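Researcher: Let's do a round of design. I'm pasting the structure tokens now; please hold your answer until I've finished.
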């Protein structure tokens, strides 16, 4: 067993040796190393964990052992004296051991350390050293081992100044010295030196150290003067700031200018200069010093300084101080340099800071630069609609601030406002008088400027404010002259800017306001009144002047001087008017008999004798002097006009201002003879006349004509012609011809006489017999009726009145006869009353016979008034007026009496007229009197005093009408926009002027947003009074804030289409504009990158059913709308119907294709006949016929039917399947070869576009299907679609072709993009105004107005020049312009204060679009970020304060708003420093100073700990 174990061990050992693995020595020493003082005891244990070994032992120079058969063995020595001892423990293996003999040596350190060490100096034992001379200090350490573990530390005071180590490898004790080389300074005097010896024996040994005694030194130096060019503050001494030092203490003497100076006396600025100092100490020195006395700046400036622009100015401020102060000028917080010549830009408040190293002072100076007004800006020509309002603004910069005055035509509707250095003119309800020039003058003490703008009123014509009385003058030739007066209107008189004068056409100028006409010569003076007015300039107004003259004669004659005319021929008459003026006012009337008539042709009126009618002398519309005028007419007369009298009348129509009736003159009559051919009266002589045998007939031929015709009868009954007069007796049948002849013509009339037999006696006999028979039958029947019927008799005696109406009489039977009932009583009273009236001569109860004119009086307060009282009675004895304004006494024997009042100065006027009659009676009638006064002012309060109104809230608006009378006639109309929506009247009977208030209570509604409200006061005193103008108040715009309201229904349910996208419309109206947010039913929809959730219209990128909700919110509220999207149900009925329809159509196509469609794709009723180019059986009849018929049928459909509907997807697919199946049977070999050039077009709205469609193979029809500019061609291989101005947003042009070979028809849709850049891009904060606060979240809204197509739009957000966000709208598909917005969420930091945010709308239309892409950038939004104060160094600061020196406490902090500083301490601080960030002072005391920096956001504090520190002696 042992042998097998040994074999295994041997094998394992060999294997380990072969693989390079060696076993370690199995010995463990405890401790592995030892440190022992020389002579002390030591013991170390050696042990092993092996069991197969012979023994272990110690091999050492002192206390060694042999091999012992133990597994542990201890080496121990009572007193170790061997400095180089190195004990080793070894192990002897047995034969079975797997290791060889090995040993381990332990490290033993023997040490020795002295009890004391010494320190000596090379300069001796007195400790006196010379400054800056090198000295050696020696530290002696005796009998120390081992020296390599020794460290010597040198101390100067309590500080280590040098450390010395040693490399001696000896283990035995040695005496070791350490030397410190040292150059003393005067500051080292009194310092102590010592050395320390440290023996570092490691972690196993002790840490030993010993220190020498302290060695104090004294350093001799000087004397030295501690300054070279001393700078002293005023009040300080040379003794303090320029001491003479030395050891021993020197004897010092100061001299200035040869005189001894006391260095302890405080110096002033006058004591600066050259000093000599002498000092005696360890040596003697003499030194000259330049002494400077320092003092702070002294700044002298005026508080206000005025300078002329561009003129050199004197020094504004003087400054003194040493060192020389630095003067810095600040304006608005920025350092500036004041130029030699000041300009207007230099005006302002300056902070002047003068500072040197001692202190700083500052003074605020207000510099005023006087300069003349600059050129006027913002005053431009304006155009305004009639009745609208326009502002004219005039502004100029100048110092002193310019004063303004306007030069224009002043009217009541123009108001002038001066505010904040700007002058404005408001033209309200513009009229023609507001047209003209408006000159604004700006002036101050330095000069003046002016600028003129012109105002044009559209729809109005410039009027000259001149009144001419009378405005039209019509004077008769050689009559008494009249004069016209010219004066400015009431407003024109205030704007008159020169003399007023008259000027006639000949250039004659008449000074003064009156002009008189010369009635003998002034035929065409064309007088003008001319005046010059402010704003209008020189203008004139024409007086409508007419000098007229009645004609000397008026005559009528035929143009060709003939007095006779043939019937129905044109005949001309001429009316000659002699010496008449003005001819343009002449009217010629034509009379036939005593009646006027309008001729068929009326020639123009012309001047008699004029050869050239186009000359000015022949134009009656130009010439105003007397003319001979003729008027010609063309008439056609008939026989009725024979012997008629014709006359012409010349009348001057001079208008309402001319004489009435208008002057006229009639010509003498002209008799006209009308010749006309005979006309036979066929009424009395018909063409056929029957003649009874035996009864001759007389034929009378009557004819009319002029001259009178000759009448003859021509007949030939006996075969011989006969002629007779106008009467002919005929008894035989035949033809008889009547002729009527005069000088004009002959007329014939033929009569046929027919001979008839006379049957009249027979007829008469038959009629007589019939009448007799009828009479006998009637008598017989009547007699029978009379016998069987009871006769009744009626009379009118004692009639009984009917119960029904009292007007029917009867005698007991039911038959009633109408009767009239007579009232005897009424007739009797009428007779009595008539007799009484006839006896007394007047009716009972008659009214007072007074008539007032006017019947009522309406007078403006202060105006004059007149009325007339008249009596209609012949019994009037006298009349009079009673009135508080002065009546009229009783006046006898008058029938009318006037009342004249110069000025109505009373509000209650009780005026009556009275009449005294001869019979002693008196009656009177009161004149109703109304005294009115227009309001002095009408004003209206704004609808809301606190800004915009909120919808639903109630507000009161007040209209104040000041000083109006009478109130009962006052009505206040409230206007909203162009409508009157409320009217208030007043039921007050007080006749005195009052102030009235009309209060309108209204509830704000969104429909009122943006409208204007004003009130209008109107006095209605009609119909008795004049129409008075109304007075309007100023208008106020109504701004109503209201919550969002959806434009579509509140909730919607939509079906999810199988194709296309669903559009959810959440558009809402609101003020402010709503902000939108969407909630999706499925979380996966939120992961879409292109999903935009801040738009009113949403088309989800991932279309899933569910409930979507959209929230529209603004500052007034939040509304939510829900969209329920469901999956569309499959309509199998539609599918079945489509299948049935297409099966039926397929059968018809099959039959038609089989019989009537040729392989060429055309219809033919002889399908089997010859086909050009190929046999009739060139392709299968059944499939080809059906397929071709389908193709041809599709082609002949209308364009709308030809494009399959995308709404019925099932039918669409089924039709495509059928077409595909049919095309499978047709002969095909070529593809649809339509090429669009270009294939994609990008065109701007309103721009032109042209696209060519080309066919790559022969084509039958090629065309464009388009809503506009559709085109087609036959046989050509290209057709062009061209639009000069494309404005149709939904235009989708399609090129289609019908080919000779399959495919017979195909189409290509043009990729057309019609774009429009946005009208505006704006950026604003959402629900926030003013500065932002650091760390808070804000939303910025970018709104884009009217852009298309929106899917190509990208909104890029920039902060400064850095893009921070971009937003695309590719999920929207609207082709027409829309309004979109994007929201940027920001959390501003202090670094973003002052940053500018912009929003850029970019239309990226692809390579075919404009390059670079069109962009529109919003106005920048400046971000003002408030953040709390932040110190540059927030940690507390500890500062050492040396007495007499300056110390600076810097508490500067950044913040917005700018921090305000305050200091706190147990020691007082000067008041002027309490608000400074940096505190610099030489008088601070030790302690803790707390600085607080605060702004409106936060307060922060910082501490400064000031400790006192003294100078070394």
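Researcher: That's everything. Go ahead.
Model: Designed sequence:
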């Amino acid at each position: 067993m042992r042998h097998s174990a040994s074999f295994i061990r041997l094998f394992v050992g060999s294997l380990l040796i072969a693989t390079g693995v060696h076993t370690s020595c199995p010995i463990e020493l405890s401790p592995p190393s030892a440190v022992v003082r020389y002579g002390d005891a030591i013991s170390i244990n050696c042990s092993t964990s092996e069991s197969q070994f012979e023994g272990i032992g110690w091999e050492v120079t002192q206390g060694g052992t042999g091999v012992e058969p133990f597994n542990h063995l201890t080496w121990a020595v009572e007193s170790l004296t061997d400095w180089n001892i190195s004990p080793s423990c070894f192990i002897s293996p047995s034969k079975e051991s797997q290791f060889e003999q090995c040993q381990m040596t332990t490290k033993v350190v023997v040490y020795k350390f002295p009890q004391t060490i010494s320190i000596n100096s090379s300069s001796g034992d007195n400790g006196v050293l010379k400054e800056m001379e090198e000295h050696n200090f020696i530290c002696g350490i005796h009998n120390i081992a081992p020296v390599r573990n020794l460290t010597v530390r040198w101390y100067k005071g309590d500080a280590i100044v040098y450390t010395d180590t040693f490399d001696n490898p000896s283990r035995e004790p040695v005496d070791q010295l350490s030397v410190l080389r040292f150059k003393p300074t005067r500051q080292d005097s009194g310092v102590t030196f010592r050395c320390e010896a440290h023996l570092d024996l490691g972690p196993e040994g002790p840490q030993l150290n010993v220190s020498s005694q302290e060695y104090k030194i004294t350093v001799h130096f000087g004397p030295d003067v501690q300054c070279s060019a001393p700078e002293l503050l005023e009040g300080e001494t040379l003794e303090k700031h320029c001491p003479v030092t030395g050891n021993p203490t020197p004897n010092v003497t100061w001299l200035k200018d040869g005189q001894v100076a006391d260095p302890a006396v405080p110096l002033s600025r006058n004591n600066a200069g050259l000093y000599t100092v002498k000092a005696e100490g360890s040596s003697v020195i003499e030194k000259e010093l330049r002494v400077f006395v320092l003092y702070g700046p002294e700044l002298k400036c005026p508080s206000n300084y005025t300078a002329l622009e561009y003129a050199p100015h004197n020094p504004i401020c003087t400054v003194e101080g040493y060192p020389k102060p630095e003067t810095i000028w600040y304006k608005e917080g920025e350092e500036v340099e004041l130029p030699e010549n000041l300009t207007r830009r230099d005006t302002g408040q300056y902070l002047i800071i003068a500072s040197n190293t001692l202190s700083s002072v500052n003074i605020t100076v207000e510099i005023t630069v006087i300069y003349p007004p600059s050129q006027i800006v913002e005053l431009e020509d304006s155009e305004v609609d009639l009745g609208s309002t326009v502002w004219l603004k005039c502004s100029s910069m100048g110092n002193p601030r310019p004063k303004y005055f306007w030069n224009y035509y002043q009217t009541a509707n123009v108001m002038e406002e001066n505010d904040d250095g700007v002058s404005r003119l408001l033209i309200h309800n513009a009229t023609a008088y507001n047209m003209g020039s408006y000159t604004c003058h700006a002036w101050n003490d330095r000069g003046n400027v002016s600028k003129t703008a012109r105002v044009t009123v559209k729809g109005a014509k410039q009027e000259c404010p001149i009144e001419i009385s009378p405005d039209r003058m019509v004077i008769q030739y050689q009559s008494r002259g009249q004069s016209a007066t010219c004066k400015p209107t009431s407003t024109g008189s205030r704007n008159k800017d020169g003399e007023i004068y008259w000027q006639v056409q000949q250039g004659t100028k008449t000074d003064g306001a009156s002009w008189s006409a010369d009635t003998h010569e002034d035929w065409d003076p064309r007088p003008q009144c001319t005046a010059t007015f402010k704003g209008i300039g020189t203008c004139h107004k024409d007086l409508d002047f007419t000098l007229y003259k009645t004609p000397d004669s008026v005559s009528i004659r035929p143009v060709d001087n003939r007095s006779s005319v043939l019937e129905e021929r044109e005949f001309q008459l001429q009316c000659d008017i002699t010496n008449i003026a003005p001819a343009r006012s002449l009217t010629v009337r034509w009379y036939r008999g005593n009646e006027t008539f309008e001729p068929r042709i009326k020639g123009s009126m012309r001047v008699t004798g004029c050869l050239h009618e186009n000359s000015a002398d022949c134009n009656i519309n130009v010439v105003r002097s007397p003319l001979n005028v003729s008027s010609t007419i063309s008439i056609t007369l008939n026989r009725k006009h024979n012997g008629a009298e014709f006359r012409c009348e010349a009348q001057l129509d001079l208008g309402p201002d001319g004489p009435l009736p208008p002057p006229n003159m009639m010509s003498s009559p002209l008799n006209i003879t009308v010749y006309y051919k005979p006309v036979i009266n066929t009424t009395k002589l018909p063409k056929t006349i029957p003649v009874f045998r035996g009864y001759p007939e007389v034929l009378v031929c009557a004819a009319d004509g002029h001259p009178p015709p000759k009448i003859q009868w021509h007949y030939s009954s006996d075969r011989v012609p006969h002629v007779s007069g106008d009467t002919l007796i005929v008894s035989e049948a035949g033809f008889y011809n009547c002729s009527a002849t005069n000088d004009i013509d002959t007329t014939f009339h033929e009569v046929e006489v027919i001979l008839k037999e006379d049957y009249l006696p027979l007829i008469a006999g038959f009629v007589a017999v019939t009448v007799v028979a009828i009479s006998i039958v009637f008598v017989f029947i009547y007699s029978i009726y009379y016998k069987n019927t009871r006769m009744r008799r009626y009379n009118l005696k004692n009639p009984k009145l009917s119960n029904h109406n009292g007007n029917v009489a009867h005698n007991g039977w039911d038959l009633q006869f109408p009767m009239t009932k007579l009232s005897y009583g009424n007739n009797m009273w009428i007779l009595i009353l008539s007799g009484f009236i006839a006896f007394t001569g007047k009716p009972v109860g008659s009214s007072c016979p007074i008539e007032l004119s006017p019947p009522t009086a309406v007078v403006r307060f202060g105006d004059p008034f007149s009325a007339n009282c008249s009596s209609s009675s012949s019994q009037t004895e006298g009349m009079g007026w009673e009135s508080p304004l002065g009546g009229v006494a009783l006046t006898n024997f008058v029938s009318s009496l006037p009342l004249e009042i110069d000025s109505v100065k009373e509000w209650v006027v009780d005026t009556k007229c009275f009449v005294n009659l001869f019979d002693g009676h008196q009656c009177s009638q009161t004149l109703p009197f109304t005294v009115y006064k227009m309001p002095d002012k009408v004003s209206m309060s704004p609808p809301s005093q606190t800004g915009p109104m909120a919808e639903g809230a109630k507000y009161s608006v007040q209209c104040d009408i000041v000083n109006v009378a009478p109130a009962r006639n006052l009505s206040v109309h409230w206007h909203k926009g162009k409508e009157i929506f409320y009217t208030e009247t007043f039921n007050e009977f007080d006749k005195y002027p009052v102030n009235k208030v009309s209060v309108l209570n209204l509830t704000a509604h969104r429909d009122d947003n943006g409208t204007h409200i004003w009130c209008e006061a109107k006095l209605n005193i009609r119909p008795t009074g004049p129409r008075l103008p109304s007075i309007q108040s100023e208008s106020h715009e109504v701004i109503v804030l209201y919550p969002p309201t959806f434009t579509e229904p509140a909730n919607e349910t939509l079906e999810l289409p199988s194709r296309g996208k669903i559009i959810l419309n959440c558009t809402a109206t609101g003020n402010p504009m709503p902000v939108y947010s969407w909630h999706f039913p499925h979380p996966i929809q939120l992961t879409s990158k292109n999903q935009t959730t801040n738009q009113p219209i949403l088309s989800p990128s991932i279309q899933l059913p569910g409930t979507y909700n959209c929230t529209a919110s603004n500052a007034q509220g939040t509304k939510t709308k829900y969209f329920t999207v469901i999956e569309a149900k499959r309509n199998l009925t539609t599918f079945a119907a489509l299948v049935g329809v297409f099966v039926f159509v397929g059968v018809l196509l099959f039959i038609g294709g089989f019989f009537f469609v040729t392989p060429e794709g055309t219809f033919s009723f002889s399908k089997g006949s010859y086909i050009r180019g190929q046999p009739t059986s060139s392709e299968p009849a059944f499939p080809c016929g059906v397929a071709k018929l389908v193709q041809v049928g599709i082609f002949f459909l209308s364009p709308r039917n030809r494009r399959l509907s995308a709404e019925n997807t099932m039918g669409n697919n089924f039709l495509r399947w059928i077409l595909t199946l049919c095309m499978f049977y047709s002969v095909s070999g070529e593809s649809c070869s339509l090429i669009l050039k270009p294939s994609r077009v990008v065109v701007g709205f309103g721009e032109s576009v042209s696209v060519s469609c080309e066919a790559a193979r022969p084509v039958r029809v090629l065309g464009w299907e388009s809503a506009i500019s559709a085109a087609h061609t036959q046989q050509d291989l290209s057709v062009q679609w061209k639009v000069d101005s494309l404005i149709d947003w939904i235009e989708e042009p399609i090129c289609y072709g019908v080919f000779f070979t399959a495919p017979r028809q195909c189409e290509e849709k043009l990729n057309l993009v019609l774009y429009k850049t946005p009208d505006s891009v704006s950026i604003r904060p959402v629900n926030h105004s003013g500065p932002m606060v650091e760390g808070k979240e804000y939303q910025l809204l970018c709104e884009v107005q009217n852009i298309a197509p929106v899917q190509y739009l990208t909104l890029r957000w920039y902060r400064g020049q850095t893009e921070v966000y971009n937003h695309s709208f590719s999920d929207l598909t609207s082709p027409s312009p829309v309004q979109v917005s994007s929201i940027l969420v920001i959390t501003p930091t202090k670094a973003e204060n002052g940053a500018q945010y912009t929003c850029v709308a970019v239309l990226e239309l692809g390579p075919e679009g404009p390059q670079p892409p069109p962009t529109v950038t919003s106005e920048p939004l400046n971000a003002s970020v408030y953040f709390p104060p932040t110190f540059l160094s927030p940690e507390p600061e500890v500062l050492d304060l040396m007495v007499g020196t300056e110390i600076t406490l810097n508490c500067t902090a950044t913040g917005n708003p700018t921090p305000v500083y305050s200091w706190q301490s147990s020691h007082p601080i000067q008041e002027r420093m309490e608000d400074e960030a940096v505190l610099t002072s030489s008088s601070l005391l030790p302690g803790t100073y707390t600085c607080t920096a605060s702004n409106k956001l936060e307060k922060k504090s910082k501490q400064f700990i000031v400790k006192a520190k003294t100078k070394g002696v």
